[in-house]
Amino acid sequence: MKKSIFYHAGCPVCISAEHDIVTLVGESNVEIVNLGEDRSKLDTAENAGVKSVPALVTPNGNVLHINFGASMADVRG
Amino acid sequence: MKKSIFYHAGCPVCISAEHDIVTLVGESNVEIVNLGEDRSKLDTAENAGVKSVPALVTPNGNVLHINFGASMADVRG
């Protein structure tokens, strides 16, 4: 199966959701991207449709926004 | 693994998220509850911490609110 990508920004809401998602989906099925640290991925995430973090982009390209940590504008600062 | 419970209310946002979650987590690992049809589960869902649907309650009791379909107040009507 193609991997999902979990985008977060290091906030507490994100970390909590990350643990849940990794447990549910399986560590080997998810790539984790911290947009707070890896800012070169911000454009990639927004182009994929990510409007807030944490968010999970599924293998078929759907975006699941999970809870609400921070808007992309906040992450860009 | 104890099952997760996916709560939704039949709205298009919910159905789309349901398909994604079932694909990612595996059909046998998720119980699906449609609060629009099974209104006796509304209290159970709210007591579990569900504030909007669609939402996934994980086996360890965390609530992941996914995208935003409708608030629980809207579902109660």
In short:
Chains A, B: It comes from Tenacibaculum todarodis. Chains A, B: InterPro entries: Thioredoxin-like_sf (IPR036249). Two copies of one chain form a homodimer. By secondary structure, chain A is of the alpha+beta class.
3D architecture notes:
The structure is a homodimer of 77-residue chains. With 77 residues, chain A is α+β, with helices and mostly antiparallel strands. Chain A has helices at residues 12-25, 42-47, 72-76, and strands spanning 4-8, 30-34, 52-57, 63-71. Chain A has a single domain (4-76), classed as Glutaredoxin. Chain A contains three helices and four strands, in the order βαβαββα. Chain A has a four-stranded mixed sheet with strand order 2-1-3-4. In chain A, a hairpin with a 5-residue loop joins strand 3 (52-57) and strand 4. The longest helix of chain A is centred in the N-terminal third of the chain and has 14 residues, at 12-25. Chain A binds chain B through residues 4, 16-17, 20-21, 23-25, 29, 56, 58, 60, 62, 64-68, and chain B through 4, 16-17, 20-21, 23-25, 29, 56, 58, 60, 62, 64-68. Chains A, B: InterPro entries: Thioredoxin-like_sf. Chains A, B: It comes from Tenacibaculum todarodis. Chains A, B: This is Thioredoxin family protein.
